[in-house]
Design brief:
- The chain is built from 11 helices and 9 strands.
- With 246 residues, the protein is α/β, with parallel strands linked by helices.
- A 6-stranded mixed beta sheet has the order 5-6-7-3-8-9, sandwiched between helices.
């Protein structure tokens, strides 16, 4: 029987800023159809790992493959929700226009979104509970609402793999539940979802796969097998209970 090709394959990846390694010799295999958290302390390189996989940051060594090919060749298969802090929220555009940007990858930059794309954008806004805000300027939305709009933008891409950089940061409990339910739906549909996550308490409830990272990869695998005191101590340098309650 033919072995299934991993969704993401990272080999010997090293990233450095000013000659200081931020990620060191990372080997990571992410199977298709998992909902994976990347966890680790501040400065562990979690966001850097996603950006290096997406080609936003150039590594000094190593390689990345999306379904066996370089990211540049597989770009249309990938959706990305960046950290809220990296987005210019004063940019004068409406919620529905932000979501429509997610269709550009399929259309190319010359062709304009048509009725089909607008229908998809409205459906995505409805899915994240933001349809009634479709004409609202993004600068006028709350942090949680902005995050929902960016999630809707990723949904219209209809990607095979989604990368999300701290999607729960600064959102209210209702938004957090709405987001995790959508992520679980994506996994149920066979998508692969990779999430930079900081709340250790919710890892067993939200995710089925986890990667522990602290400049080096500490461990990766199913939550039920590797989310334990030993790996938390290796990653955070403190015992499990302290790490969970940080």
């Amino acid at each position: 029987m033919k072995e299934q090709q991993p969704a993401i394959q990272v080999d010997d990846l090293t990233v450095a800023y000013n000659y200081k390694p931020v990620l060191w010799d990372i080997d990571l295999t992410v199977p298709e159809g998992v909902l994976m958290a990347i966890v680790g302390p501040n400065g562990a390189g979690k966001s850097t790992l996603i950006k290096a996989i997406l080609g936003i940051i150039d590594p000094i060594a190593g390689s990345v493959a999306i379904y066996g090919k370089p990211y540049k060749e597989q770009r249309k298969l990938v959706g990305y929700v960046p950290q809220k802090g990296s987005v210019d929220w004063d940019f004068p555009t409406t919620a529905v226009d932000v979501v429509l940007m997610g269709t550009y990858g399929k259309l190319g930059w010359i062709k304009r979104p048509g009725k089909k794309e607008k229908k998809e954008a409205l459906e995505a806004l409805e899915k994240v509970g933001m349809l009634s805000f479709k004409n609202r300027q993004i600068s006028q939305l709350s942090g949680g609402q902005q995050q929902r709009v960016f999630l809707a933008r990723a949904l219209v891409q209809d990607a095979a793999i989604y990368f999300m950089d701290e999607p729960f940061q600064g959102v209210d409990a209702t938004t957090e539940i709405a987001i995790i339910n959508i992520l679980k739906e994506l996994r149920k549909a066979g998508k692969t979802v990779v999430v930079v996550h900081h709340d250790l308490q919710t890892v067993p409830e939200y995710f089925d796969w986890v990667t522990f990272l602290n400049v080096k990869k500490i461990a990766t695998g199913p939550v039920k097998d590797i989310f334990n005191d030993d790996n938390l101590t290796k990653t955070y340098g403190i015992n499990y209970k302290v790490a969970i309650n940080k």
